[in-house]
Structures are given as C-alpha cells and as structure tokens.
Amino acid sequence: MAKMNLLQAINSALDVAMAKNDKVSVFGEDVGHFGGVFRATSGLQQKYGRSRCFNTPLVEQGIIGFANGLAAQGSFPVAEIQFGDYIFPAFDQIVNETAKFRYRSGNEFNVGGLTIRTPYGGGIHGGHYHSQSPEAYFAHTPGLKIVVPRNPYQAKGLLLSAIFDPNPVLFLEPKRLYRAAVGEVPEEEYTLPIGKAEVVQEGTDITVVGWGAQVEVIERAAELAKKDGVSVEIIDLRSILPWDVDTVAQSVMKTGRMVVSQEAPHTMAFGSEVAATIQEKCFLYLESPVMRASGLDTPYPLAHEKEYFSDHLKTYEMIKRSLNY
Amino acid sequence: MATQMAKDPQKTAVTTELQVISGNALDIPMYQLLKEDGTVHKGVKLPEIGKELALKMFSTMQFIRILDERMIAAQRQGRISFYLSSLGEEAAAIGSAAALKFEDMIMGQYREQGALAFRGFTIDQFMNQLFSNELDLGKGRQMPVHYGCADLNFMTISSPLGTQIPQATGYAYGQKQSGDKTCTLCYFGEGAASEGDFHAGLNMAAVFKVPVIFFCRNNGYAISTPANEQFAGDGIAPRAVGYGMKAIRVDGNDIFAVYQAVQEARRLAVEENEPVLIEAMSYRMAGHSTSDDPSGYRSKEEEEARRKREPMIRFRNWLVKQGWISEEEADAQMQQHKEEVLAALKRAETVAAPHVDEIIVDVYDEPTQALKDQLEALKAHIRQYPDAYPATSGGVK
Ligand SMILES: Cc1ncc(C[n+]2csc(CCOP(=O)(O)OP(=O)(O)O)c2C)c(N)n1
Ligand SMILES: [Mg+2]
C-alpha cells in the first residue's frame, strides 16, 4: 500500500497495465514527455518509450479515430482527451464508431481494447469549457461502458478493469479531486468490477445516489442530515453504463426514499434515468417521489459557479424535501 | 456560384513518368522587412504607415506587454483565477488588426488581446472581464481572457479550439452576400490547425470564395507539444495550396511585414473574393497560461535564444531611429500604461459580481418557464443560506 492522490493512482494503473501487456499504449494531447497537463501520464514515456506513450496532434476526432483503429487491430489503446469539454469533436467517432464497431460487424471486428480517459466536472473555476459533466450524452449510447471513480483506490482498480475489459470504456475522472482525494492504494495490480455500485454508507431513512466527485458532496449533505437525526444510505454508482439497478433498488426498497445528486444540468442528466428506473422497480415501496439535486439548466457559469452547483446544501435540502413530502 | 470551374478529371494532364511529389515540395520563406535589430532590409519599401498609426501600434504593444505582466502577477496573488499572456506575439496581433478596416470582423483564439486593444477595448473593459464582475460584457460567465465585443466587431472567444475557423468562413460568406466590402480575420494557433474544423473551414472558404483571412499564429508550441510533433510538413502555410487557396508566410515578430501581409490579404479577400491563409512565425515566450510551467518541456537556452527575436525592441528601435519617439518618451509611456493598468485593476476588483438573476439570462433570447422556476428556487435557497453564496446573497434580500 502507498499513499496516492487520484492522479498518482491513475498513473500507477497505467504503469501496471503497460508493464503487464506491451499492447497497452497511452496517448493524447501533451501526454508524452510532459506527462499530460494534469501529469496523469508522467514518467510513462521515459519508462516505456515514445512508441507506447506519446503526444498526438491536437485533434480529438483524430485521437479517437486513431484509437478505434488501433483497438480494432488488437491493441489496448488508452486515449486521453485533455478535458471532457473537448471530447465533442470526437463525438462521431465515439458514438457512431466505438460504440457500434462490434454490433455492426456481427462481431467480425471490435474495439473492445479501447479506453478513453478524460477529466470531467466543475468546482475549479473553469467556466463553460473546463467544468462540464458530459456523461449523459454518452449514456444514451448502447455499446459503451462508462465508469466514474471517486477516489484513488477506485481510480486504479476501475481503470485497470476498463483497460482490459473486452468492451470500450469511457473513463471519466473527477478533476476537482485529482489532488484533493488522497488514500491508500495497493502498488500492485488489482481490479474493481465495472457495473457494480458501492454502498458507501449504510442508512435507513433515505437513499442518496451519486457518482464521482458528487459522492463527497453527498457525504457532506448526509452529515447535515445526521444532525437532524436522519440516517442516509449513500450509494456510489461507480459505473454509469451499465449501472447497478439492483443495489440501488434494494436500498430504496429498504429506505423508501431516494435523492439523486448530480453535477450536470437537471434536464436529461443521468439521474433522470435512475429516477425513472427506480420508480418502475420500487413504486410500491416509495414514500415520496424520487428527487434530483442537479446543476441548473444553463451552461456552466464562472462567476456564479457556486450558485449553479448542486452543492451539499442543495442536496441536503432535497433530502429534507423528500422526508417532509 | 464558384467563379472558377473545379478541375475536370478528363482534362488532367498525362505523364508517363511516375512522379512522386515530395512532402516538402513547397518550402515557403517568411516575409520580413525589419531585421531583428530594427534596421530595414536593404532596398525594401516599408508599408505606408504614418507616424500616428505607427505610434498607436507601438503604444498598444507596450500596453499589452504591461497588461500581460501585471495580470500574470495578479493571478499569482490569487486576485484572478487564470490568465494567458501574449508575450512575444504582440506584433502579430496588433500588426494584423491595424491592417484591417474597423468594420471587418475579428474572430480570435485567446492570445490576441493586442488586436482587441487596438480596436479600442478599454482598460476597464479588459479588467471587468478578467474579474468576471457585473460590468463584464460577457456577464462573468467565461474564464478570464475570453473577451468579446460586438461594438468593436470582435467575436467572443470560445475555448474549444478551432471552432471559430469554419465560423469565420460562414461569417465572411454573409459579408460577401451583403456586399458591404468587409472581411473576417480569424486567428488560431498552429496547434489548433490540427483540428478537423481547420480543414472544414479552409476547404469551404476556398470552394465558396469568401472574403476571409485565416491568420495562423505559429508560436512553436501547443501547450507542451512542439510544432515538430504537431505536423510533419513545412508548417501551416503550404496547406493552403491543397485547398486551392492563397498563402503568405510572414515573420510574426516584424510588425511591418505583418501589416503588409494582411493589407494584401485583405485586398485579395475583399476585392477578389480570394480567401488567404497567413502563417505568422513567432514564439510563445511565456508559459501557455498561468496553469503551465514550460520548464517541464523546454530549455532556458531555447527561451533565451528566441527572446532576441522578440518583436517590441525591433519596432522600438526603428521608431527611435526614425525620430518618432525617444527612448525617454517610450519609457515614460510604459510607466503611464503601468499606472493605468494598476488603477484599473483596483477599480475592477471592487465591482460586484453579476446579480444572480443574470444566471438564467441569455440561455435563450427569453428565459423559459423552467429556468424562471429554477431561479426562484435558487434565490429561496440563497436566502436560506446567505453565507454560502457571498457573491450574490446581497442581491437577493
Ligand atoms: C478542442 C480543444 N482541445 C483541447 C483544448 C485544450 N487546449 C487549450 S490551448 C491548447 C493548445 C493550443 O495551441 P495553439 O493552437 O498552438 O495555440 P497557442 O496556445 O500556442 O497560442 C490546448 C490543447 C481546447 N481548448 N480545445
Ligand atoms: Mg501554438
């Protein structure tokens, strides 16, 4: 075990994967010699050479198109998109190509070796284009897996699963926690299951669901609720696609109430899917409607970041609303 | 509508010799008038820039130097969240803006504050944007340096790279249709030129023959990535030929050469509907932004060597030799800019944040009912927890 922050855990996962299998390569804008603008790939070029860890030209559609081809050839590309906000030039490659490669060819070809890493989320004074949470766009795409770690331990275990998963995985990294989240992480290889949620805190009165950096926000909200004598069960989805319906449904059948707390704008955020499914599965157990604490339905603002954000206070108020319904 | 017919495959000339054309078949020299020491190349005629315009260009250059320097310091002190310097590239932005007509549209990437200052963006307008306060034209919504001003025909900056390139083509198409004899100048970096939008924008401009000038600032780096890892060919300018477009490569640190190049490009664009790609060779002397430390990817020796070619000394030496400004006057002007920058910084710092009501404005022309409901809920929440939202709680009593 070693103390690592989230970036170091990602770096360690990449290191382990590259050492284990020489078909693993890591590339993207500035990831080579410099080690990436957040330094997630630092030291990898020095260790594994320029052919396995390298800078690409500045073209996201090219990065993912290239990665699709490399994965189709049988490699395990780990492509970095510098910010989640800049993934959209590659939207076509991801949605129409990555996600459908296997299905459209009747499994003659697949790009299962592909992993796309990208930092997402707000709270860093990033304004419109360094703050977005784009998971819902991709969650609407059958064929992709989407994973969001919330701490260093998860980051390494989930990333190692993602790299060697036989399906393409979009790996969203909560950049706000890159250095802020620190924890004990095994130095050797280990994996965590994709598609499995984690009950972060057991409780009896209400279930609050989130993923990635938002789990920390939920924990703070749960602390406030605890002072009111409310026992909150916190679930971290860890995977957005596929997501662990059973774990959430079981929890809600126990507590009878649910709030989803998410960073993305309210309308059509992934919480809408969670809410709809839980209402289907748990209708007779629910004591109040499933509620959502979300970002506003506006672009992500700079000066009003605090106001926009679905912070612990808004999540706490939503917990109260659910309880007092 | 194209004035020139596309190449007819039946009319392609035939050869029995297998020709493999070299990837470096074009090796375009860079146009330069002023040498690094500020003397003029033998036998060249400088563009006709009178004393008044020359001094305005120089003063803008000095202003941007000091603005960049002070705002990097302000970021280090935690007074603003982010800044991005144009150190070393001032001549490219200012020389090009100076060669345009005021009515021409400018679309920037983010390192062209010199062009905006030349257009007349005031020091307070700069500061209000940098401090995201309620006087910012962009209403505090974007990160620092994402300026924009309709009155000055300067399109608001957007962070996603390259997106403005095809937009410039579309804007210029509209200008051509309107018949008002204006053009669009679009700045972007040599890194951004790798984006798919670059290809889309240039190809469409060449096909539609629109009055647009694509102005690539080749400063050698895209964050840490050196130009030789960005492209294998001879830079950006030769690409124009592939699109059937005119190209100019110019020394971006020579303000006269830049001015002359853009003046000619503008003539071609507006008079002949010929889009032009200009590649201005320069060097990003500062870090990419305040979030960057270049010592991780380039040497001090390289930086020192490039510093010798920086654009301001060259221009200043020429102006002094010309007798249009004295060393003392130039220094005094710099000092004055500095005082004005500091005073404006202090003013902007004390201006309030935009009112919380602004948060839903401009998503659409009118806020939807859903947005109005969200705002009301937000305000009720802020009333409940005023201490948690100090920037706006004062306004929601
Ligand atoms: C689509 C997109 N991808 C990535 C980025 C992140 N990014 C911001 S600036 C930059 C480098 C740009 O280099 P260049 O175009 O050469 O301009 P310069 O900074 O040198 O002026 C990168 C990669 C972005 N803003 N947009
Ligand atoms: Mg550059």
List its salient traits.
heterodimer, A: 325 residues, alpha/beta, Rossmann fold, 2 domains, seven-stranded mixed β-sheet, B: 397 residues, two-stranded antiparallel ribbon, 14 helices, 42% helix, binds thiamine diphosphate, binds magnesium ion, oxidoreductase (chain A), thiamine pyrophosphate (chain A)
Topology:
The complex is a heterodimer of chains A (325) and B (397).
Chain A: E1 2-5, H1 6-20, E2 24-28, H2 44-48, E3 53-55, H3 60-72, E4 76-80, H4 91-97, H5 101-104, E5 115-120, H6 135-139, E6 145-147, H7 152-164, E7 169-174, E8 182-185, E9 198-201, E10 206-210, H8 214-227, E11 232-236, E12 239-241, H9 245-255, E13 258-265, H10 270-282, E14 291-295, H11 305-308, H12 312-323
Parallel strand pairs in A: 2-3, 2-4, 4-5, 5-7, 6-7, 10-11, 10-13, 13-14
Antiparallel strand pairs in A: 1-8, 6-12, 9-11
Helix pairs in contact in A: 1-7, 3-4, 8-12, 9-10
Chain B: H1 51-76, H2 90-98, E1 105-107, H3 113-119, H4 123-130, E2 154-155, H5 164-178, E3 184-189, H6 196-208, E4 212-218, E5 221-222, E6 225-226, H7 227-230, H8 239-243, E7 246-251, H9 255-272, E8 276-281, H10 300-307, H11 311-322, H12 327-349, H13 369-384, H14 390-393
Parallel strand pairs in B: 1-2, 1-3, 3-4, 4-8, 7-8
Antiparallel strand pairs in B: 5-6
Helix pairs in contact in B: 1-2, 1-3, 1-11, 1-12, 2-3, 2-9, 4-12, 5-6
The structure holds thiamine diphosphate and magnesium ion.
Give a brief outline of the structure.
The complex is a heterodimer of chains A (325) and B (397). Chain A has 325 residues and is α/β, with parallel strands linked by helices. Chain A is built from twelve helices and 14 strands.
Question: What does this entry look like structurally?
Answer:
Chain A: Pfam families: Transket_pyr (PF02779), Transketolase_C (PF02780). Chain A: Its cofactor is thiamine diphosphate. Chain A: Keywords: Oxidoreductase, Thiamine pyrophosphate. Chain A: GO terms for molecular function: branched-chain 2-oxo acid dehydrogenase activity. Chain A: This is 2-oxoisovalerate dehydrogenase subunit beta. The complex is a heterodimer of chains A (325) and B (397). With 325 residues, chain A is of the alpha/beta class. Chain A has two domains: 2-185, 3-Layer(aba) Sandwich (Rossmann fold); 198-323, 3-Layer(aba) Sandwich (Rossmann fold). Helices cover 36% and strands 20% of the residues of chain A. Chain A contains twelve helices and 14 strands. Chain A has helices spanning 6-20, 44-48, 60-72, 91-97, 101-104, 135-139, 152-164, 214-227, 245-255, 270-282, 305-308, 312-323; strands at residues 2-5, 24-28, 53-55, 76-80, 115-120, 145-147, 169-174, 182-185, 198-201, 206-210, 232-236, 239-241, 258-265, 291-295. In chain A, helix 3 runs parallel beside helix 4 (91-97), helix 8 (214-227) packs across helix 12 and helix 9 packs across helix 10. The radius of gyration of chain A is 19 Å and the shape is globular. The mean pLDDT of chain A is 98. Chain B has 397 residues and is of the alpha/beta class. Chain B folds into two domains: 29-36 and 48-225 and 234-349, Rossmann fold (3-Layer(aba) Sandwich), CATH 3.40.50.970; 356-393, no CATH class. Chain B contains 14 helices and eight strands. In chain B, the strands form two sheets. In chain B, strands 2-1-3-4-8-7 form a six-stranded parallel sheet, with helices on both faces. In chain B, strand 5 and strand 6 form a beta hairpin. Chain B starts with 50 loop residues before the first helix and ends with a helix. The interface between A and B is large, with 41 and 52 residues. The complex binds thiamine diphosphate (TPP) and magnesium ion. Thiamine diphosphate (TPP) sits between chains B (111, 159-161, 189-192, 217, 219, 221-223, 284, 288) and A (29, 58, 60, 82, 86, 89).
